[in-house]
Amino acid sequence: MTTATRDLAGLTARIAEIAPGLRVETGPGATGPYAYDASNYRVLPWAVAFPRTADDVVAVLRACREAGVPVTARGGGTSMAGNAVGLGVVLDFSRYMNRILDIDPETRTARVETGVVLDALRSATVPHGLDFGPDPSSHSRCTLGGMIGNDACGNRSVRDGRTSGHVEALEIVTADGVRAVADRTGLHPVDPRDAEVIARLASDLRKLIADNLEPIRTELGRIPRQVSGYQLHRLLPENGFDMARALVGTEGTCAVVTAATVRLVATAQASALLTLGYDDVVEAAEDVPEILRFSPSAVEGMDEAIVATMRVRRGPDSVTGLPEGRAWLYVELEGEDQATVDGRAAALLDVLKAQGRLTGGRVVESPAERRSLWRVREDGAGLAARLVDGGESWPGWEDAAVAPENLAAYLRDFRKLLAAHGLTGVLYGHFGAGCVHVRVDFDPATDTGRAVMRRFLSEAATLVVSHGGTLSGEHGDGRARSELLEVMYSHRMIRAFAAFKRIFDPDGLLNPGVIVEPAPLDADLALRELPLVDTSFTFPHDTDGFTGAVRRCVGIGRCRSDSGGVMCPSYRATGEENDSTRGRARMLQEMVRGEAVQDGWRSTEVKDALDLCLSCKACSSDCPVGVDMATYKAEFLHRHYKGRLRPRSHYSLGWLPRTSALAGYAARPVNALLRGPLGRLLARLGGVTTERRIPAFASRRALRKTLRAAETLSEAKSPGPAKALLFVDSFTRAFRPQVAGAASRVLADAGVPCTPREGLCCGLTWVSTGQLSVARKVMARTVAHLDDGDDRPIIVAEPSCAAALKRDVPELLGTEAAQRVADRVHTFTGALTDLADQGWAPPPLPQDVVLQTHCHEYATFKGRRPADLLRRLGVRTVDEAEGCCGLAGNFGFEAEHYDTSMAVADLALTPRLDALDGRPVVADGFSCATQIDHLAGDRGIRALHLAELLDPSADRSGETS
Question: Which one of 370, 435, 489, 666 is most buried, by most CB atoms within 10 A?
């Protein structure tokens, strides 16, 4: 390790001198999120650099070598072993060095920078009928550089093996700033002037191998998933001094990889997926050798805890297609002909039934079911981290592997080891490759828990080695297992590893503490006992309240995905770690910790991290561990501004339910005033952007007229008492009373006559602006009026208000009455799904519809999505803008957030509107409809509420926009 003193200012000045314009950030607001990856560890770096070119990397490495400062290379930051955190300077390759430089279909190769996300490469190769073989579950956010660092595998490793098997060349920078190319035949300088340096390095490596032939040949490369240590056998004479593949899996400890040439594979023409049920994972593992005889592309396993958690978090329909059982295998077969593949699948199923271990098995035909099942498996690490019973589990022994034929015996002994230490583990992973991921309910926050963890890990290492296995099968050794390498390898091999690193990195500055001269496995653990924090929200699902809630984030990083789901719109717009759900959660963890961030709720760094959060709540559903950043932000803003002057928009927009109610008494003159110069002045004074038109207020008279007419029609349609309450929220009342009328008519037509209830408010605007004391008073009044002995369903046309009543009200008030009200709440979609007469059919509907689902509806009302209802009602094609509209309540109206709001809209909504071609647009959320009007209103496009689309009294003569 370095003995250099910390001279951060001098280091950054030196980097700026060598590489002008290179972005380098310091301070807790910048470094806090980079203190963590997806492991158990926290190491706060001194600075984070964001290189754009290999020359930038050279500059950082030279400056750091001069100053004796360590360097850690980082991709997506999803490492579970702690190999993406470190002191000194962290190099984030994902931000700018993420270009696909070349794809050559003829040679089936691609050249990419190491910050390229795997899914981006795969999308680019699809038109050529090609793919990159290894496919970790984190494929939507892991980078090629991270995969190369760990020698990652993935769900189809039975077919495609490890990343090292697909690497043809690596472009590297050595610790002293020399650029070179490592290929299948050796090491070559980029600059001819460095030829002597590279030749000397290669000569030293050849001598090292020659001096250690016997242990390298007998200890390395024994089983397919042997990733632990360095892959020195790649440099054996019989392997042609394969320098490229020798550097794969070195975890950034020997050189920094800036680009790679990788081999691609042909996309399978046909496939079949079998789901197999078992009583437990050991029984499943017993069948693996037989399954492998059928040459599957994937054999993945998981236990019942993951499935149960998925169903609770995303609804019972989120997991379909599994047979009876308490553990399952997914088996995928591929080939060139579907009939042949189907025949193999049927034969395999027959053989396994004859073996007698199956509790059930089936071939999954539905593409939707297949996608659903793969998502459960891919979210395994996150789902296992925070289970349905609230229990927490942690990595540390999440990557051990044995030969597949030894898997059942190993798992049987492993479960005995867990029991002996009073621990439980959630198991899943790549059973076909003998690699089992397990998250264990360690207690790394206490001294006693850490001692148990250390003893268990030491004994687990001995156990897996006794079964001929490896400590790490694809995640690398990192800080979690490097100390245990001495259990697996001889002293001579450990010395050879150290010599290998020393040849490349004589000063030990590259990712120190990993593999060679390892840090203790229980050093730098992130978790510790922290005091409970007083909050307004009750956080009923987190035993430690706010502290436990923000601890939900374990760094899985799904919020850094560019597609799939809705989370996280601000990250998708900016590409900045600090603007991701993970980055914000890490800053809140730093705040609670009180070290780097020392001013608690008053922290400007935390406020800045939360600033671009749209409070869309998508993370509460899309995040595998259920992080709810909208709630955390509301709590923070409440505490941050307590007793202080707030941003102007908190008053102008946060109090909108009150001001809009008053405006309704004089809607016409108020609207005229707001359309003129005085309106723009008032907007600026209120912190509201002048780029948008302020929506027109509806008059109280219009509201009363609409509700009376709807109630009269409802009574005529369905004589007798109303079956439900129609909650007329503040947005519907103030801006679009016609939606209340349409909703009432549709519900009456569907056999659910309603009594309108207006004058109450869910409190949402005060929640989103962090004015929780006011929100509590508003909510308490609403609950008192609704919890009056009436148990009829409460139907809310505005999805955001429905979500607030369903979740925010009970979690902020914490009363039984609030929960009783919440239990009665339905969205309009939910009411038609659950309450409508069985034979009800709407008027004729258009064949094709563009849909923008409100984020709060997406997140809170699982399994009750407008898209599903529209399809059931006969709409042929629902083109859903998957993602946030960008307005997000007050967010997009705030002057400082307008540009981000529009950037978010451009991700999914704007392209749908630009390609509308006469199709109607459906958007139940007032924010979504307002954003659509802003984007396309000048083209005559207006969003319809679902109630307006289904309204039996609607004039459909011109209904195409």
Answer: 435
